[in-house]
Amino acid sequence: MKTPRPSFIRTGLNDYVTYVCLVFPAICCVVILANFVFTSAGTMLLLFVLVLTSLITTLIAGIRFISILKIFHDNQEVMGVISRIDFYRDRGRVEFVYIYQGAKFTSGLSIMKNRRTAGYQPGDEVFVLVDRNNPRKALIKDLYQ
Predict the structure, then answer these.
(1) Is the predicted pLDDT of residue 112 greater than 80, yes or no?
(2) Has this prediction a pTM greater than 0.90?
(3) Which residues lie closer than 8 Å to 69 by C-beta, 6 or more apart?
């Protein structure tokens, strides 16, 4: 059986932490370009801070994606039920309940509001990928694939 793999694009569009960490470097690039256009030499300290924070946020996005890859690689797929979903502007949180090895767990994810995530309702059944080593860590499979 083929092991499912997460899509980097779907992860970036649905996962709030990854989205913010990918958008921030893009914003920094625009600020750097604007700084060069509107000033003669640019402010070196500003440029240094923007480049450094861009590298850090890109690293965080990479670490987040690797942790999602690990859950996809070493997981147990179970059925779960969405217990709560809230949105504020473009971001939100989905909480879900699942049973793993006879124990009931509740987990949640910070998500971006889009067509896919806005369709979820409390009571919806979803496939949940549970980390075998830490059953409290779980993902809704459909958000990342």
Answers:
(1) yes
(2) no
(3) 5, 6
